[in-house]
Amino acid sequence: MPVVRIILFKTKAGATEEQKNAFIDGSKALRGVVPGLLSLEIGPSIDMARAKGYDMGIVLVLESPAHIKIFAEHPAHLRLHDMREAISEDSLAFMLETS
Questions:
Q1: 87 with 12: CB under 8 angstroms?
Q2: Domains of the chain
Q3: Could you write out the DSSP letters of every residue in 53-65?
Q4: Mean pLDDT score of the chain
Q5: Which residues have CB under 8 Å from 70's CB, separation 6+?
Q6: Bridge-partner residues for 56, per DSSP?
Q7: Are 10 and 55 in contact (CB under 8 A)?
Q8: Angle ∠(76,84,21) on CA atoms, nearest 5
Q9: Could you give the CA distance from residue 99 to residue 1 in angstroms, rounded to a whole number?
Q10: What percent of the chain has pLDDT over 90?
Q11: pTM
């Protein structure tokens, strides 16, 4: 069964648009690189009314629960950690299996 992973970020006040765009572009570059990654969408919230300060999000679909570990440990994904730390003051992750 596919797995949907949703990650929300509160970006730091001092994070520049250049830093945010580099993180977005780096995340999009994971498409077609990480085995089992079926889709990935990332961007800013289009409505902050109920976002509780989380102003950027990623939604990705993985082929199966077994691909969670593959994604988490993939070198291309790990290279994004420093970029994420530079722009994000907090994050929230949620995963669910789909039918």
A1: yes
A2: 3-97 (3.30.70.100)
A3: T--EEEEEEESST
A4: 96
A5: 34, 35, 36
A6: 9, 44
A7: yes
A8: 85
A9: 6
A10: 98
A11: 0.90
